[in-house]
Amino acid sequence: MADGYLEKHQETYESRKEAWLRKKKHLPKLTKRIERPDDEAL
Fold first, then answer.
1. Is the pTM of this model over 0.90?
2. CA 11 to CA 18: how far, in whole Å?
3. In the chain, what percentage of residues exceed pLDDT 70?
């Protein structure tokens, strides 16, 4: 293998991982909402 092959791939992996984590932090958190009926007697 060429010199620096693994190092280059490690660098690209780290940069893609950072971008993914930055994007992930800005996504809204999904919460489960409990739907209640309008009339409590039901």
1. no
2. 11
3. 86
